[in-house]
Amino acid sequence: MPQNIQKIMSRFSSISLDEMNSVALMKRTDTKFVINKKQLVSILHSIEQEYRVLEINTDRVMSYSSLYFDTVDNKFYNDHHNGKNNRTKIRQRKYVESNLCFLEIKQKNGKGETNKTRIPVKDFELNLSKSSEAFIAETTNEDFNLEPSLWNGFNRITLVNLKSKERVTIDLNLSFKINETEKNYNDLVVVEVKQERFNRNSAIVKALKSLRQHPYSISKYCIGMISLYNDVKYNVFKKKLIKINNITA
């Protein structure tokens, strides 16, 4: 993590996990932006009075590790690639500093809303347990035959707006792995603004707009898949991959 980002984060007021629960926004509108680390520095400078930063045990930049699951024919990936409105992602995610692990299901509907449901699990399950399979079946009303498809690691800064119901996640140092193949995007930053409905007057949205950065639909899972798998359809995502390579060049 660059020192200047750590230094800027130390100037933000902090918020605890318990305090942040009031802005959980499990049903929400997510708006993503992609920038590079240099742009992030100027954005953080401009918004430090508007947001508090999540702090857990003195940590303000958290480590996350995720294991995504998909069907043998990559249904979840293909649904996203093919622009299906109602789609699902299933993953296990570990919050490294707090040593908590969850099985999470994200379901997107045709209105652009994302519903996330989750249950705690002891640790990553390469073979899903009976209770995990039952939770997936009950939540999705489907009987999927799932297997691990992608590992993903990143660092995250979480900001909470002081005045409105808004959270912002800033993901850095993205890495993807399957078997022995790995791809890193160290200069890429994914900013996700989580609101009840999209608000262009948000301080971070304004800061991004001042750098000519506009909402950009992107999925870490899909980027990881096209970066590591040679046999998946990815023509719809070609422009996204070019954009990411330009950002990180």
From TrEMBL:
<dbReference type="InterPro" id="IPR018966">
    <property type="entry name" value="VTC_domain"/>
</dbReference>
<dbReference type="GO" id="GO:0006799">
    <property type="term" value="P:polyphosphate biosynthetic process"/>
</dbReference>
<dbReference type="Pfam" id="PF09359">
    <property type="entry name" value="VTC"/>
</dbReference>
<dbReference type="InterPro" id="IPR042267">
    <property type="entry name" value="VTC_sf"/>
</dbReference>
<feature type="domain" description="VTC">
    <location>
        <begin position="27"/>
        <end position="229"/>
    </location>
</feature>
<protein>
    <submittedName>
        <fullName>VTC domain-containing protein</fullName>
    </submittedName>
</protein>
